[in-house]
Specification:
Elements lengths: L6 H17 L16 E4 L7 E5 L4 E7 L2 E6 L11 E3 L2 E3 L6 E3 L5 E3 L11 E4 L2 E4 L1
Length: about 130
């Protein structure tokens, strides 16, 4: 004897399957950089010693604390997820609420943020700074 599912059960299962397929297609979180690894961000000459540059589209900040030493950090402020706006006077600055972070290690130099900027992997190849 075979059991035939009720029409309501078939419709509910079909709808649930369609909904879960639509929800699961992203594959990543919204905070990840949109760029692919290996892509050039800038020539090294564009990153000033003692300063840095914000790459808003990639959500990355590249700094050069000392000659020839390049660092990458998330450009998303750890306070309320605004993008940082500027790098000057040895800090990465967020204009939303005034947080400042060290260009050397991303640590908080001025709140309201309490957590450092996470490091992002970059690579220097010749005269080029690239996503790693």
């Amino acid at each position: 004897m075979s059991h035939t599912p009720a029409r309501r059960t078939v419709l509910l299962c079909t709808g649930a399957a369609a909904l879960s397929a639509g929800c699961g297609g992203g594959g990543g979180d919204g905070d990840a950089p949109a760029s692919s690894p290996g892509r050039e961000l800038a020539p090294t000459s564009d990153i000033p010693v003692g300063g840095g540059k914000v790459f808003a589209d990639e959500k990355i900040v590249v700094t050069q604390p000392r000659q020839g030493e390049f660092k990458g950090f998330s450009a998303v402020c750890t306070h309320q997820n605004c993008l940082v706006s500027d790098v000057r006077d040895g800090t990465i600055d967020c204009a939303c609420h005034g947080s400042r972070f060290s260009i050397a290690d991303g640590s908080v130099e001025q709140g309201p943020a309490t957590r450092p900027l996470p490091e992002e992997r970059i690579a220097v190849e010749g005269n080029s700074v690239r996503l790693a």
